[in-house]
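Residues determine shape. Take a concrete instance:
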Amino acid sequence: MEYKLHSLNEEQKLLLDQGKLLPLMEEFYTIQGEGYNTGKAAYFIRIGGCDVGCHWCDVKESWDANIHPLTPVEKIIENLKQYNAKSVVVTGGEPLIYNLDYLTLLLKQNGIETFIETSGAYSLSGKWDWICLSPKKTMEPKQEVYSNAHELKIIVYNNNDFKWAEEQAKKVNKTCYLFLQPEWSKREQLTPQIIEYVKSNPNWMISLQTHKYMNIP
């Protein structure tokens, strides 16, 4: 694991490497607001730690894993069972910093669909029903993530991002769904441009952060 947490004892380091402890920032049951699975009820598990460094990130408090408690995966599953959730979205931060094999093993044992949202900058781990790849210019995704992605979601922050989106689309598999999503602070400016782009390039679809319009997490 390249991303380092500080002040861990040997047992914590071992359990972290095994994916049996994860720095849990937050977890909540809500409605998926973005991309292909928009509108679907899902339990979100947000894992702390990210070194990708998107300047427009709306959860920068997730970047430092050291401020989020190392939580046993069994506890995360126990918390999940309080709800009627059938799907889990693992997000971050950058969740693939960590070994997610054990987390998805327990989720699958409990009959839960497994979704992940990732920049793709780290190697793929875990068993996933749906991989949403949202690549960032600061760190190139791993080829294995490009190859296995079900959904490519490009955040459009400026006009240059349309060209970059096309470059990224050439790297994913042919069955991958392609989405353009306006960065939230630029949505009024960019949404009309994205609409016209998708009309001219119908292999793309539009993703909006509908959870923010609904005022939910």
Observations:
- DSSP finds seven helices and nine strands in the chain.
